[in-house]
Amino acid sequence: MARADIQAKLDRLVMLLARRPGYLRAHLASLLDVADRTVYRYLEQLEELGYAIDQDSENRYFLASGEASNRVKMEFDVEEVAFLWDLLQGAQDPDGIAPDLRKRFAHSLRPRAREQPSYQATIPQMICVLREAIQERRRICLHDYRSGNSNSLKDRLIDPLHLSEAGGFLQAFEPDSNSVKTFKLARARDLLLTEQPATYHGDFPMVDLFGWTGKTWKIVELRLKYGAVNHMKEEYYGADQFLQASGKEDFPVLARLQVLQWAGIGRFLLSLPGEWELVSTPELSEWVKEQARRHLQ
Questions:
Q1: What's phi and psi for 257, nearest 5 deg?
Q2: Are strands 190-197 and 138-147 parallel, antiparallel or unpaired?
Q3: Is the model's pLDDT at 163 over the cut of 50?
Q4: Are 205 and 180 in contact (CB under 8 A)?
Q5: What are φ and ψ of residue 143, in 5° steps?
Q6: Is the pLDDT confidence value at 221 over 50?
Q7: Which of 129, 166, 253, 256 has its CA 20 to 30 A from that of 275?
Q8: What is the enclosing helix (H) or strand (E) of 166?
Q9: Residue 217 DSSP label
């Protein structure tokens, strides 16, 4: 592998390790598209570069936080915090201070928010609070969550477990239903970090960009027209990081995605005929054709 490719993998690994509660080595291998032993070698390289890497009781790897500082007080506008949050996600952070900065950014978003009756939290705001909740094992309340399954609008008290890589979907345990569910952050008006401890300690599935779970990651490459690009960016928060120029005039954007089921990305493709072309993954192409045939019958 070329040096530039290895550096790109290491940069991506740093971004993944900065997210709590962390990842198992097998999950990191899937997300980086490398062998398990290669992840181990990358982890050693990061430690040699000065990164402090730790493991929890479930063998999930994460970047150890630096010592918190109380000497700096910061106030930011919502737009500034969202920008800085995204910037810190990809920052080189050998001293491990980025998590502490993100935590303080999160606190700067919260004052007086609940006093505004029409207040609508942004997804970056929610992610700031969720990172803290997952790290500190605290329960949250999703305010005015719009459920598509039960056609209801109500507050949902949950134990947050895992955010999708792009950040738009949340895996969480709901005590009321005694089950692990997937929640789409865009369907909530706001969320509150409670003082209640999270009590769930069981397994939970990973979730992909489209909100679907599964056991095996699959790589999908496709070219998109701008109509499909707009739809992907608007519907799936954080999709930008998977998009780049394709060099083709008719389909100018290349998307390289990791998915867990064909159903999620398949629905996206079926809703946009003529707006995309597959570069790889003939299995997905056959799945889309079969679904199209069923709908036409």
A1: -120, 155
A2: antiparallel
A3: yes
A4: yes
A5: -85, 135
A6: yes
A7: 166
A8: none
A9: -
Strands (E) in 86-217, as ranges, are: 138-147, 152-163, 169-174, 179-184, 190-197, 206-207, 213-214
Alpha carbons 198 and 212: distance in angstroms, whole number? 23
Distance CA(24)–CA(43), nearest Å, equals 12
User: Other C-beta atoms within 10 Å of 47: how many?
Assistant: 11
| 3-state helix/strand/coil string of 11-72 | HHHHHHHCCCCCECHHHHHHHHCCCHHHHHHHHHHHHHCCCCEEECCCCCEEECCCCCCCCC
Q: Are 176 and 132 in contact (CB under 8 A)?
A: no
Structure tokens at 217: 């990651």
Amino acid at 11: D
Kind and range of the H or E run holding 218? strand 218-224
What three-state secondary structure class fits 278? strand
DSSP, collapsed to helix, strand or coil, labels residue 102 as helix
pLDDT tens for 119-133 read: 577 888 788 888 888
pTM over 0.85: no
- CA distance from start to end of the chain: 48
How many residues does this entry show for the chain?
297
- Residues contacting 81, CB < 8 A, separation 6+: 105, 106, 108, 109, 124, 125, 128
Q: What is the DSSP letter of 168?
A: S
Specify the amino acid at residue 223: R
- Cα gap 268→278, rounded to integer Å: 13
Q: How far apart are CA 158 and CA 161, in angstroms?
A: 9
